[in-house]
Design goal:
1 helix; two-stranded antiparallel ribbon; alpha+beta; about 55 residues
């Protein structure tokens, strides 16, 4: 599947990744809508030490 991956502050890359597989007691959900929180902006900009790019 395609995923938008945060790779560096201020940088995303569209990547092909494996479809997640649910383990025992888990489930995979199909997302129809998504949004961001105001605190996500500081993470994207690299100004939040709790958020690390992949």
């Amino acid at each position: 599947m395609k995923a938008l991956v945060w790779t560096n502050p201020r940088e995303f890359q569209l990547q092909e990744v494996l479809m997640p597989v649910a383990e025992t007691g888990e489930m995979v959900l199909k997302t129809q809508y998504a949004g961001i929180c105001g605190s996500d902006l500081s993470g994207y900009l690299g100004e939040n030490s709790l958020r690390k790019p992949l």
